[in-house]
Structures
1.
Amino acid sequence: MSRAQQEQKLKEQICDIGKRMYMKDMGAANDGNISVKISEDSLLCTPTGVSKGFMTPDMICKINSKGEVIEENAQNTSPSSEIKMHLRVYQERPDVKAVVHGHPLHATAYAICGKPLNKQIMPESTIFLGEVPVAEYGTPSTEELPNSIVPYLQDHDAILLANHGALTCGIDLMNAYFKMESMEFYAKLLFLTSAIGEPKELTDEQVSTLVQLREEKFKVPGRFPSLKSFQK
Ligand code: 13P
């Protein structure tokens, strides 16, 4: 596949993910943004101020690692207002190739209440997320937001943003997007089980076994909080 074809495929994938986020209550109206690294100094990212549920590939922006447009697109769109936050993730985490920011309904409700997703209630969320911390509030589009996530970036691929939403990152677009989906499912489960009664948590031993499985058998890519940090 030529470079141009690869880029076109990534643009289509960004649009597809945007549509799913919009349909799955992870980004109302114009909310959310997505980016992917295509070389050391170039990225594709969603345009600002448009619904991520209705994007077409010719709206996707091509930028450099400073966030400057390096190739105009057919729709003359400008990069996401949150691009600084995405760029900070790539700076701090050279292993990351894609970043997704959304306002998933249940996870954002936890972020607004300042409650991390830290109850180990289900094997998949323990394996794929561990726990999800809440970063301090930062004004959208300013340096405050990138600064707020730095303390969590080395050990987490999924972070709640206080009074705002959530951010996930991964080794490719699907990996970053699936973490957003898993996190929202986990938040919904926590919310529902807390409404029904007291969610029964996995024991420390069960959690250790799952973490061992993640590392030795599933070899899940990404960064996760240490076992100690989420054992009771
Ligand atoms: P953009 O449309 O500029 O990416 O902003 C959407 C958003 O969710 C801001 O937090």
Note: The first strand starts at residue 33 and ends at 39.
2.
Amino acid sequence: MSNIEQTLSIIKPDAVERNLVEEIKNIFLKNNITIIESKKIHISKEEASEFYKVHQSKPFYDDLCNYLASGPIFVMILEGKGVVTLNRRLMGATDPKKAEKDTIRKLYGISIDKNSIHGSDSVENANKEINFFF
Ligand code: UDP
Ligand code: MG
């Protein structure tokens, strides 16, 4: 049996812009995930750079930070059994072209950079990312 966990989910600017917040929330709800807290915010480039600093050495870092700050995002604390792993499964692979059928990125992602959603990759990072936004 998995433990009850929390994780951070972010609906990225491309998906907020296309009014996909409710559709994506419904995918979580149908999978027995509870949305504990949520808010729509528009972060600065500096905040995006801080959030994504684990990627600071990557060639895509600057574009990624500009992108996350390019428009409103919808951030959520998700809670449920094994939700860190479950959320990653529901999101699908980073590149929407490689994402599995019916995953959020397969359904809605536009490209590897505009891939509609972020999700924490471990319980430890989930705690850090939740504290960053809430
Ligand atoms: N990303 C990108 N180009 C790449 C790899 C990643 O633009 O070649 C972006 C993409 O938006 C991804 C984010 O950087 O969601 C963070 O990358 P990570 O490898 O952590 O992927 P994720 O955990 O989001 O699947
Ligand atoms: Mg990641």
Note: The helical segments are 13-17, 21-30, 45-51, 61-68, 83-91, 104-108, 123-133.
